[in-house]
Amino acid sequence: MKFEPSILSFMCHWCGYTSADAAGVFRIIHPPYYKTIRILCTGRVDPFFIFEAFKYGAEGVIIYGCRLGECKYSDGNLQVLLIGESAKTILEESGINENSLKLEWISSTESVKLVKDLNQFFETIKNIGPFGNETNWNEKDKFLYLDCASKVCQDAKIGVLLGNISKKLKNLRDLSYSAIKQKIEEKIVNKLKLKWVEIEEKNL
Amino acid sequence: MAEAWRSPNIEILTLTEVVNIKGKPGNFTVNLKINPRYIDSEKCRACGECLEYCQAITLDWFNRYLSFTKAIHLDFPQSIPLTYYIDRNACLKLFQRINCEMCISVCDSKAINFNQKPTYRKIQVGAIILALGSEPTSFKILENYGYGKYKDILDSIELERLIDVSGPTEGNLIRESDFKVPQKIAFIQCVGSRDLRYEKPYCSSICCAVSIKQAILIKEHYPSSEITLFYIDIRAPVKEFDKVLEEAVSKYNLKIVKSRPGKIYREKDKISIHYIDEKGKLQKELFDMVILASGLSPPEDVEKIAKNFKIELNEFNFAKTNPLNPVETTQSGIYVIGSFQGPKDIHESVIQASAAAAYASELLKDSRFSVIMEKLYPPENKELINSKPRIGVFICYCGSNIAGVIDVETLKDYAQKLPNVILAETSMFTCSEDFLNKIKEKIKTYKLNRIVVAACTPRTHEVIFKNTLKEAGLNPALFEMVNIREQCSWVHSDVPEKATKKAKDLIRMAVAKAQKLNRVIPQFVPVISSALVIGGGLAGLTSALSIADQGFKVYLIEKEKELGGIFKKFKFLITGENLQTYLNDLITKVKNHPNIKVYTEAYLEDISGYTGNYKSLIKVNNNYETINHAVIVIATGAKEYRPSKYPIDGKKVITQFDLEEIISKNNLKNKIKKVVMIQCAGSRGEELNYCSKICCIQAIKNALLLKKINPQIDIYILYRDMRTYGFYEKYFLEARKNRVKFIRFYDKKRPKVILKGKKIKVKVYDTILCKELELYPDLVVLSAGIVPENQDHLIKLFKIPADENGFFTEAHIKIRPVETSTDGIFICGLAHRPNNLPEIIAEAKACAAKACTFLVKEFIETSLITAEVDMTKCIGCSICKEICPFSAIEIIKVNKKKKAQVIKTVCKGCGICASHCPVFAIDVEGFSNDALLDQIKAFKSGDLEEQIKEQKEMM
Predict the structure, then answer these.
(1) B917 and A159: CB-CB below 8 Å?
(2) Is the pLDDT confidence value at B373 over 70?
(3) What is the ipTM of this complex?
């Protein structure tokens, strides 16, 4: 049987979800490989949600936020950018293809773009293959590793670090993509890696 | 739009015209004619079946006739009301009398009715607001530019539709002639504006910004395209615009040419444009596509409108208003907003809309609350809510919309087996009145305490079901909706089995989430019905007076001894009204108003509390006083900038404000025969990096005043772009007729003022003559721009953002222009941005209207979705406080330990704090960690099936 990915999408009520509704009104047919969780703002997405999703069967996670600068709550989508970038670091560290997580920015009327992005993401995941394929994990491995990743995110120290970064960026009034990327590399990548090793050791 | 539609106190009548009006302000009788839609709005469920079968194809006006639609259609998927309509000029039955009636036979809900006739209705209203909009430039003007004659010449609205992803080409910019992507694109500005040939002497204000935006969008989409923009003056009266323009020019390599193209014609597959370049040479250039930046014209039937409402029009056929009363028509009780009042951008329309609300509210304050509706609900059944989850799942067929693809009955069987589901039922239309009543019955009979509805989108229908829950005595937060129509059956109709499986998964996830939903009781926080206005300038005074006239107490604090602010120095208005009389009148009114208490030489020392309940400490003459108030209007104003690069001496080199002072006191020396005015002295990239908006108009005003005093005075205005936007263009024209000489200079070659003993020399590089000129004037007047008063203290107190120049920034530049990121704090006047008088008055009035939306309430009801801190977990790190976009979190001390606390009235429920809390102490109602986690866990079907098995074994 052909591999059909199953994907979890987090959609912001004001943009992604509205566009998805518009895709319905326009009857833009596309494969049903994804299931949506509606949230008010993508800033609500906790980093550990992403790993829990992988743990419970998702092969890919896609997050739809408002276009940068257009967040209804002023900077929620920039916060998720920070969360997404750090989640990607953990993905990489645990050997999972970082392309399994994608962040997209969309306005509330871009149904065509939404479907295009989704289709593209389906292709990406199809190329990556079933979860754990690349890393040769069995179900038990997968559960263990993802549990570790999830625990890294739930760690209070990491949480404080992340919080402080976003605090700093906010005070600098610079929530640009490049600034976020730089801050993450400066402040958190090493800590995340250390934490990862620590928790991995404990668990395995 | 959706919010207005949902408000119980707004009735929207579409397809309706005003036949006539009678009566007087406070009591108008309006006769309306409601044209038939041929579809019953109550019954239509916007399923789109009729669209599929409709046989009459017609051009789609919404897409500017670039695509096709059917006679029966929706203009766009977010339309309000979400009901299809039949275009009677396209319908086979209505127009061609062919008995088609296909739509009738396919409509499940029997909504189509060809027998509908126009109905007439009489309504009683107190005030009338005209928001009639404007028309794009007419074909008659466009055709002079080759539009209609040659393909690949578009107007800006057509381009807007083409580059819109939901437009006819799905956002692909293609040429009409060969469907290829154009490489070289030209924008021609001022088409149908600033053009005496077609009797359009005014500037349309928005086209420069529109074209720049479109150019940026094209460049982002097609980076290799080459864009040239032909302009007269780059204008956009928004302070952020210059930055955007400069970025666009440098980042995207836009070519901007100050020239008005002459000949436009087709040469093989390209469009040829002749123009004179800045060096004075004739150029001929070929383009693949030409965009005409069309302007705004008054509505076509403007004369009929004027007659109907008995209002006067101005010389350009827009509604006539007075600059000191910018939204009131010549007929009292009738207000005008948006581009029918004059060409303007979105944010100005929004400001005017709020301003008109303030006028109407002042007028109608005595009858406030007399006709609004409020709904009452039965008390909640607490016992039921507190017991173990008992879930009811209701699944909708939506005619064949869902059931045509998804096997709804298997969904029901599946849902029935999910944990804690007591009841699963299907229905033809879940949202129909009779089924809603049935849900209420079922809640009672089966003691259901969580409801899951699988139907269409929560965006439109969640409210309806939540109300049903309330009516049944159940807390509305105990509801979850599954979208199996828009996001399942409609988009996966090619694979019905997989769609059914997806629907099952979605229901499973929703049921899992529903288990963890908690009851939420909104809090009612009492509102103190008074406002604090900071700043006693024109904006502050206007705002204070309006709030007081609407019936509320106002405290006005001013740091100076006298009220009036910067406009005391503004002696004249270009439009001729007497500003000082108006200002003095305003000050007297404010001082004598029983609802206003004025504090001069007062300083805001400290503030505590939150929206609806602020406590401010003010210092007046070394005494301290505490004021309680609900909202704050900030109008701290601005002052004239003094550029450091010019030798201002107050005698020979002065500023525009100085000149006004001299003219008003009749102190102009007779020997002054030659005056040079320098625009952008210090502004637009020299010392200040923004455009101060007022200086061009001020310069022209003063030049005209000088010419009136002595027509022999030689006046030179040195400028970069003359920004006499909108109707101010008239005065630019008048100045040129009065022989005021205008010399344009480049940004990089600004004029130099040299003082040599008693003589002044001004050196300027003239861009037309292409050489440096030396002028020896008797007086140099600098248009110096304005800078905000130092506001650091307020920025710190209120924690509201300001830009790098010190102007306060609004919550959203276009749609929330006077609100800040904190509820209940509003900004207006020059503290917000440089602006001209009519706009400032409108802004101040808008603030008053917005402030009163809080003041009229006895209580602020908190939203159902807010964050909540678990004090036992909180470690007081204050990350949440810092990152909250609404300052809705405060740090309090509990047993000497720092703890975060959510200010419920301010919280919007975005959840940014929850995702950033390192110890998971914050949760958001309706989207709690537990609920979302369970929803995620239910993603995998296996686990739940095991649970079901376990449950069965236990039984």
Answers:
(1) yes
(2) no
(3) 0.94
